[in-house]
Amino acid sequence: xxxxxxxxxxxxxxxxxxxxxxxxxxxxxxxxxxxxxxxxxxxxxxxxxxxxxxxxxxxxxxxxxxxxxxxxxxxxxxxxxxxxxxxxxxxxxxxxxxxxxxxxxxxxxxxxxxxxxxxxxxxxxxxxxxxxxxxxxxxxxxxxxxxxxxxxxxxxxxxxxxxxxxxxxxxxxxxxxxxxxxxxxxxxxxxxxxxxxxxxxxxxxxxxxxxxxxxxxxxxxxxxxxxxxxxxxxxxxxxxxxxxxxxx
Length: 248
Fold this sequence. Notes:
Structural class: alpha/beta
Radius of gyration: 19 Å
Number of helices: 7
Shape: globular
Strand content: 15-25%
Largest sheet: 7 strands, parallel
Strand order of the largest sheet: 1-7-6-2-3-5-4
């Protein structure tokens, strides 16, 4: 994966391109943003959460059908306890706010990952947000919390093994569609575009199965500094790509 850099060119607007149906974003760089300013890492996460709200609504407004954001990975529990505790408080504040403030939005909220590791209060808030938003008709917003691509695949394999053992799944019938139907994103299209701010060239265990043919755009901007114009630039870059899906 190469770092995407904007180059001078003829003006292209979103009206000139076909938008991807499903966009994934690895919201990276909060800690480095805070460190550059002499602030605690928690301040970076707070700033990043504000950007997330803005970008999610922007994606909904311009017509993105599915947006999946990487909020907290299975590996993030290894971070210092005070940082993890601050993130949990931030998640609680966001989930309470979403119930109040997303009432007039058409956004459908879904949470992907192993939520069993979270407090009963957070789990209840996730479930309430999903219930409150399930009948809306707009963009599906997947928030990946305690999510890891490898863990997701292991969970899917265990479920398929149980179904095979009890006779409800023929092992010889397992194909790509069957695997996809056992993932957290069941029923959703695979991501067309994955954006990674911060300049890091890693997938970081994000949507490993689903992103097999996704286009990656790596951007040299930390997530708290990410703006609508940066998303526009990534979407325009995506539109220039020739997606062959292994063909010619």
